[in-house]
Amino acid sequence: MVKKNTKSKSSKTASNADIKKMIDSAVQKYYLKNDFKSFGESLHEALLARNMSISTLASESKISRMQIYNILNGKKEPKASTLFSIFKTLGIKIKIV
């Protein structure tokens, strides 16, 4: 289970390329396998790599903390608009092909 305000203690943040790989992995798990729990775990790794708390993500993406918490724990299937808002807040550009 993901803690509500988990923050990485690392002083170095991951590069955009590293975050992009994490997000790509999360999206593949979500869309190809309908694996919401693994998707949430991958998304949580991206949050930690950005040294961003769930509260900060919620505030900056304008999505409720509870909704983000449920997504991270695989309890809720996010809408595409929610995902785009999360990705934008994490600084990740998504191309639709």
DSSP, total strands: 0
Shape: globular
CATH topology: 434 Repressor (Amino-terminal Domain)
Average pLDDT: 78
- Summarize the amount of helix as a percent range: 55-70%
Q: Mind telling me the CATH class?
A: Mainly Alpha
Based on CA atoms alone, the radius of gyration comes out at 12 Å
Number of domains: 1
Structure description:
The protein has 97 residues and is mostly helical. It has one domain: Orthogonal Bundle (434 Repressor (Amino-terminal Domain)), CATH 1.10.260. The protein has five helices and no strands. Helix 1 runs antiparallel to helix 2 and helix 3 packs across helix 5. It is globular. The N terminus is likely disordered.
List the helices and strands and how they pair.
Elements: H1 16-33, H2 36-49, H3 54-61, H4 65-72, H5 80-89
Helix pairs in contact: 1-2, 3-5
Outline of this structure?
This protein has 97 residues and is mostly helical. The chain has helices at residues 16-33, 36-49, 54-61, 65-72, 80-89. Mean pLDDT is 78; it is low at 2-11.
